[in-house]
Amino acid sequence: MVEERLLSCPTSSFEYADVTNAVGEEKKPSAVNNYLHTLRINDCATMTLFDTLVKLLTDSLLNCTNAAEIPHASEFLSHLPTSFVFGLVLATIVSMATAALGVLHILYISVYITQSDRRLFILFLASTAPFVSLLSLVAMYMPRVWFLSHLISFLYFSIALWVIICLLMQIFEGHHSLVSKMSEHLQHIEVATPPFCCVFPCLPKIQLESRKVRICEWMVLQAPCVRLFATLASLVIYFEYQDKGLIPLKVLDFITLPSLLAGIYGTHILVTTVSRLDELISYRYIVVFRILDLFFMFFGLQQPVFDFLARYGAFGCGTVLPAIETSFFWKNFFTVIESFFVTLISTILLQPSKSSFFDKHPSCRSITSSRNSHTNETPI
């Protein structure tokens, strides 16, 4: 493609070419002409690279003159290739298994957790994977709703960041109690955490203060608020301009990216700092956070990766779906698979017998009673 662009570069009076003098003798190009010609080639190559990057962001490297339009669900399902049928069947089975495990989680949470606010927070977090899985499955059956499915899932994840911090506050019975407990055992706030620790590995530790902890909480809270505004604005742009709104949507994503990164950063600062407190060990709170964090990371990275692959031409011009929608079909397929593994891992690592969240579970009661009896014993 670079060669094609070089051939299409406009000619100039300085171009390296064979010229003849008045006598008819061949005149050799001067060193200046050679230098200018080299600069011109470099300029053309730079322009070609820039144009390629712009195309990857806003258009496609493919020239699909007869590209398929996004069909309605009924039309799409009646003309499925074998690979799409296999993907839909497998995704449906896996999503139903995820939903079944999700229902089991909800039953255990409803029965074995006493405090209503704690139960509500954990229900929201436990529903993340089944909810995202079902939305992705719907988008696989109905290609025209993939954008809505992605926006709602992303908003849910953003709210989950705030909920995981609310759960932390609930464990310690509020902000002031948390700060008091942190002050007893800790002296600094860990700020060398993802996503900025890789870029700034030598960030200093900050003195622990209630005001700074509150700032971290506000960093997390603003993320779902900004994401809600971005979701509504994205829906307006998409339904009003359809494909022509692609560039405004990307600009909006770029503008709201600092808000998302700040929310993730604030969450990591708080969780990394309190992870050294012994009170959290029995709850397996850090396990809950790591599962949510990794799930959100994979979900967030998939969208730009599959979008890039589609624009690069990895999915061709598409058959029953255009290239972009074909890539998002398979992106949703992988999201369904990931959601199942997230739910399965949560089932194994967060069993009621292993977490103090389930305070009404028989195993938790026996552990608590044994601790109380050991505490009440008087030495002889």
From TrEMBL:
It is a multi-pass membrane protein. Its main location: membrane. Residues 359-380 are annotated as: Disordered. It is found in: Membrane. It comes from Cylicocyclus nassatus. It comes from the Eukaryota. This is Uncharacterized protein. GO terms for cellular component: membrane. The lineage of its organism: Eukaryota, Metazoa, Ecdysozoa, Nematoda, Chromadorea.
